[in-house]
């Protein structure tokens, strides 16, 4: 019997990957605490800010520590010789982005997401920093993103075009897009310029806004709208859940949905109903990052070969 494969997909932007500028150390306890809110381990994890994870000055120690942290989250098994082994191990693929230390990283469970080829920053621009992986017999492009808002609308358009063209493949992209869409149910400030002024953050107008011909700064929704029009669907939109993905103090309380999981129309996958969630901190809980974690389950259709169902499935 051939079965579909349900995979847990998570997008998380932990601020600077837990790096503390004062101590110059990473606090991986924050990552552990945030992921502990999940009922089961992610099979695909998009981390938007892997700050200094692969810095040669510290010999990639943070990356090894993060992988150990991830492995420790889901318990251990003991083999016949009495050796303790983690139930889930991850392979990591860290992007290279010129001029940025907050680079995105992709973490996969190779039991169900088999890596085939990594495209570096300088290879085939539309595939740069993406992984070809075999999922349930299908070759799927995976990419973790952190769109750069500091270049304003021009750079947003460039990023939307470049990543949008990945829709020619079966693909899943996740992370911090730093932008929202023009969907009528999105929560968007009517006057972005005034919002920035009210919060004493006038310098952030161009990070998520664009100046209209009337001189009023509005939220720039063109980039996400254009990206989707290349042939993508958004998990939150498909679920009808427009919960904002940043905590109230971010960008002066911008309150928008900028962390997303995107799936190309060519991907043989569907969103498992009821599985999409924005992990909003409970009242009184400490906010460990400026962003909220987003998760969902995707069900990948089978091919002609035998398949397995991922362990710990609780969609």
UniProtKB/TrEMBL annotation:
Gene3D superfamilies assigned: Endonuclease/exonuclease/phosphatase
InterPro entries: Endo/exonu/phosph_ase_sf, Endo/exonuclease/phosphatase
Xref: Pfam families: Exo_endo_phos
Protein name: Endonuclease/Exonuclease/phosphatase family protein
Location of the region described as Disordered in the Swiss-Prot/TrEMBL record: 194-215
Domain annotation Endonuclease/exonuclease/phosphatase: ranges: 157-291
UniProt GO MF annotations: endonuclease activity; exonuclease activity
Keywords of the record: Endonuclease, Exonuclease, Hydrolase, Nuclease
Keyword match Hydrolase: yes
Entry annotated with the keyword Chaperone: no
């Amino acid at each position: 019997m051939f079965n579909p494969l349900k995979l847990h997909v998570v997008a998380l932007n932990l601020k600077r990957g837990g790096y503390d500028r004062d101590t110059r150390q990473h606090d991986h306890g924050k990552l552990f605490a945030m992921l502990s809110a999940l009922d089961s381990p992610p099979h695909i994890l998009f981390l938007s800010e892997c700050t200094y994870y692969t810095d040669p000055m510290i010999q990639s120690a943070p990356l090894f520590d993060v992988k150990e942290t991830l492995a420790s989250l889901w318990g251990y098994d003991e083999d016949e010789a009495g050796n303790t082994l983690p139930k889930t191990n991850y392979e990591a693929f860290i992007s290279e982005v010129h001029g940025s230390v907050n680079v995105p990283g992709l973490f996969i469970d190779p039991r169900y997401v088999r890596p085939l080829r990594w495209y570096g920053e300088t290879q085939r621009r539309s595939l740069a920093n993406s992984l070809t992986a075999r999922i349930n017999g299908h070759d799927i492009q995976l990419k973790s993103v952190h769109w750069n808002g500091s270049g304003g609308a021009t750079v947003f358009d460039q990023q939307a075009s470049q990543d949008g063209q990945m829709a020619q493949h079966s693909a899943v992209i996740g992370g911090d897009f730093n932008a929202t869409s023009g969907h009528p149910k999105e929560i968007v400030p009517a006057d972005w310029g005034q919002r920035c002024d009210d919060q004493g953050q006038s310098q952030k107008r161009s990070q998520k806004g664009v100046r209209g011909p009337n001189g009023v700064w509005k939220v720039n929704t063109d980039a996400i709208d254009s990206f989707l029009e290349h042939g993508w669907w958004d998990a939150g939109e498909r679920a009808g859940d427009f919960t904002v993905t940043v905590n109230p103090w971010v960008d002066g309380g911008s309150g928008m949905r900028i962390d997303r999981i995107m799936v190309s129309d060519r991907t043989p996958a569907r969103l498992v109903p009821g599985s999409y969630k924005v992990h909003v901190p409970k009242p009184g809980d400490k906010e460990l990052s400026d962003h909220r974690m987003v998760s969902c389950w995707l069900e990948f259709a089978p091919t002609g070969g035998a398949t397995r169902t991922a362990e710990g499935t609780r969609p």
